[in-house]
Design brief:
Radius of gyration of chain B: 22 Å
Number of strands of chain B: 12
Radius of gyration of chain A: 15 Å
Largest interface: A-B, 67 and 64 residues
Oligomer: heterodimer
Distance between the termini of chain B: 44 Å
Strand content of chain B: 15-25%
Low-confidence stretches of chain B: 97-106, 288-306
Order of helices and strands of chain A: HHHHHH
Number of helices of chain B: 4
Mean pLDDT of chain B: 77
Largest sheet of chain B: 6 strands, antiparallel, barrel
């Protein structure tokens, strides 16, 4: 049990490192999936609400360190999303691929929507269509990438 | 990892912890920009430092892998600008020496690599492979052979963070290339990032700038040198009311296509780069100067680089 917890923790850490490698070190930009939100959401399903919020806050602050405007918006959004992710276990139990895909999709899109709302005052004109179209596309991309990563983790023996 | 057992006391404690984290996050969101910058820089210099170090290596390798012809063309364009700047610097140095102002200026622009992070909420932000060690400062303009890309906002020792013209905070004093109409250039959001353009606001109501006219930096504000292309007028913005006109400007530089740039070393706002882009604007009478080696006054509120 302890080994599984550790291996899952390493898996989450690997997702975070991969995220920053892709976005920051390699500079792939929006062509790379948002694995940071995926990591926060997957961790939230295994953590209590407070711990999930703390993880979300820390990861959100890290994300915000790379943007010059809207500092803190990512932290607020990821804290909320992670807490809701942890509490979602009260309502939904399930580890099936379909459920995880939907969970990651909704969580990632909610994160983007919250960031969009919190930084709306920064934009000269609104671009809701960007959130509705581009945001959903990015959320689907992140959810699929997260599902693939989770499948690889499970196949590697990290989890049954 | 802990399994959630759901007792009332635990729930209360978890709720309090989550609430505390949310408060902390809101605190970071609402804290003054100066404090936010300290936290950002602290994180970049510690936790994110390894990633930035890898980025520097990757940027070097990537530039070596670019198609040779394309690389040569870009380098030639940049080299000509650097060479032109070197001549200007030498001329300035001599003039300043004559005026006993001393040798305060070094080379004015240096080449750098651009890195896009592509994170949520950071569309208009990019990283540069140069920092304070190379003489870069906050407010240094970032240019390409096609024109103005953006301005440096935060600087570390070997890296810098900058905004491009799509950032909502971007402002630059602008004028038509003949110097007849002055205004302020800022971002105008399209439905998608690819549709973002510039808008020149604050132009006099009686002005009539035809589509196709080139818009360049006016040099007012002391951030951006005068004469750097911003774009081509595409038409009048639909929201054209009051005593001023606003013109939509098709930008000279698409941020997503900029890989190699020149970054200003130190303050460049008093310079005049008009000759390098064949801009023929007469001297700015409001600024009260005509030479490129004399300090120009800087009215507040024009180009502030954010």
């Amino acid at each position: 049990m302890v080994g599984r917890r550790w291996s899952f923790g390493v898996f989450i850490g690997a997702l975070v490192v991969t995220h920053f490698l892709l976005h920051l070190s390699l500079g792939i930009g929006s062509a790379a999936p948002d694995l940071l939100t995926v990591a926060a959401l997957l961790a939230a399903r295994r953590l209590r609400g407070g711990a999930a919020a703390a993880v979300g806050c820390v990861l959100g602050v890290l994300q915000d360190a790379l943007a010059l405007s809207g500092f803190g918006a990512g932290a607020v959004a990821l804290t909320v999303v992670s807490y809701l992710g942890a509490r979602s276990r009260d309502l939904f139990e399930g580890e099936s691929s379909g459920f995880i895909l939907l969970y990651l999709l909704l969580g990632t899109w909610l994160y983007r929507a919250l960031v969009f709302g919190l930084t709306l005052h920064l934009a000269s004109t609104g671009a809701v269509s960007t959130l509705l179209l581009g945001g959903i596309g990015q959320a689907v991309y992140a959810a699929l990438a997260g599902l693939v990563c989770l499948a690889i983790f499970r196949a590697a023996g990290g989890e049954a | 990892m802990l399994d959630y057992d759901g007792t009332r006391r635990d729930r209360r404690r978890e709720g309090a912890l989550a609430g505390g984290m949310l408060l902390l996050a809101f605190f970071l969101l609402l804290v003054p920009a100066g404090y936010q910058q300290v936290v950002r820089q602290g994180l970049r210099r510690t936790v994110l430092r390894p990633f930035l170090a890898v980025q520097a290596v990757v940027a070097k390798r990537r530039s070596q892998m670019v198609e040779l012809a394309q690389l040569r063309a870009q380098r030639d364009s940049l080299a000509s600008l650097v060479a032109a700047q070197a001549a200007l610097w030498e001329e300035n140095r001599q003039l300043r020496a004559l005026l006993v102002l001393g040798d305060r200026l070094g080379r004015t622009f240096i080449p750098a690599e651009v890195l896009r992070v592509g994170l949520v909420g950071g569309d208009g932000t990019f990283l540069l492979s140069v920092g304070t060690a190379q003489g870069i400062d906050v407010g240094s303009p970032v240019i390409t052979p096609e024109g103005l890309l953006g301005v440096v906002r935060e600087v570390d020792r070997h890296t810098a963070q900058a905004i491009d013209w799509t950032d909502p905070d971007f402002r630059a004093g602008a004028m038509t290339e003949d110097g007849e109409v002055y205004g302020i250039a800022e971002a105008w959001r399209g439905r998608s990032r690819e549709e973002d353009v510039l808008v020149m606001t604050g132009a006099p109501f009686h002005s009539d700038v035809r589509p196709g006219r080139r818009i360049v930096t006016s040099g007012r504000g002391g951030i951006y040198p005068r004469g750097i292309p911003l774009g081509i007028v595409a038409g009048i913005e639909s929201a054209d009311t009051g005593w001023r006109k606003s013109y939509l400007v098709q930008p000279a530089v698409r941020p997503e296509g900029a890989a190699h740039v020149l970054v200003g070393v130190g303050r460049n706002g008093s310079r005049d780069l008009s000759p390098y882009w064949d801009v023929s604007a007469p001297p700015d009478t409001l600024a009260g100067t005509s030479g490129n080696s004399r300090f120009r006054g800087s009215p507040q509120g024009e180009d502030d680089g954010g």
